[in-house]
């Protein structure tokens, strides 16, 4: 497979292109801006699996009525530190951000804020939301269920989703530390990214329809859990916290992201926000986080490594590099973004990149 041509784009320009495309599909200016902010954030940090590669899918779901373009958002407080945010099948990026605002508010008052989200669409990179809390001196954990596309450890057919986990904490004199991971070896978006670039994938990422490892992203039938039974346990935990705990569908009952773009979804997400000031000195907490980072950087590096980085730091490094050089976007995706069409013919109805004849 030949390497795709790449176009370098500034973050604010990428944001504007995404916003205009989503507005053309029927989304309001406010919500299109919210989605674009999240996607541009992901691409700017090198998380291309959750950036512009997703726009065609979102635009088509919006245009076909599978997303509520004027949702009736409601927040129902269920206790001093808890609540449920009703998303009414609105775009997940906006719903999740508003729900995180509620969780932060609760944590500012009581020390802890736990908010579940009902009936939301796909919300993109969870790092975006935990950073939202860390920027306000909060510690945050966010988990979200997804449709079944992962074989359980020892299984040959999908049951759980990629079920990501994100964590963030503020530090003194620096950006917050942010850690965001799928509970699979790689997120499904990495498969989409490989398809868009015409690249192979490692045989440890996924299996084909026969349950055999595959290096062809177009033959992927299911993903594999990270670290075998350990990742399997984590994805079960996420599904319980963001599904069963919230009274929502779970496991193989979670609605598909791709099967029918005319129908709404009922995904669950859970934000847990902790106010460090209720447990220790906030200043000391942030100083200790900074000291931890310094000590990790000072740790002797293993052969082949120049320095020990803290988990998630590579995205921060990439963001700095892209701020200078521009964000690399596959030319086909860029051409779609600047085009007048909502739907791009190189993608199938499910937003999955397909090869041209």
Automatic annotation (TrEMBL):
Signal sequence range: none
InterPro entries to which the protein is assigned, alphabetical: Mal/L-sulf/L-lact_DH-like_ah (IPR043144), Mal/L-sulf/L-lact_DH-like_NADP (IPR043143), Mal/L-sulfo/L-lacto_DH-like_sf (IPR036111), Malate/L-lactate_DH-like (IPR003767), Ureidoglycolate_dehydrogenase (IPR017590)
GO MF terms held by the record: oxidoreductase activity
Coiled-coil ranges (or none): none
Gene3D superfamilies, sorted: 1.10.1530.10, Hypothetical oxidoreductase yiak, domain 2 (3.30.1370.60)
Alphabetized UniProt keyword annotations: Oxidoreductase
Family: Belongs to the LDH2/MDH2 oxidoreductase family.
Protein's recorded name: Ureidoglycolate dehydrogenase
Species lineage: Bacteria, Bacillati, Bacillota, Bacilli, Bacillales
